[in-house]
Specification:
The chain has helices at 19-48, 52-56, 58-63. The protein is mainly alpha-helical. The chain has one domain (19-63).
Amino acid sequence: MSNQIKNSVPLTRTAINLESEAEELCKLVEERLDAVEAVIREETDRLAEARLRDAFTFYEKKAN
């Protein structure tokens, strides 16, 4: 699996000059946080069920 994040903002960007750019960045951040939250919720459910092996499979998903 690739470590490159889809729809990522270039690391060289230093300023947001337009409202539309700020909105786009906020949307991207919100989408990524929602995705991480879903993975953490699934992982937590597995841990609560004492399914440790299954829970550890979510580690890589969180890193991406």
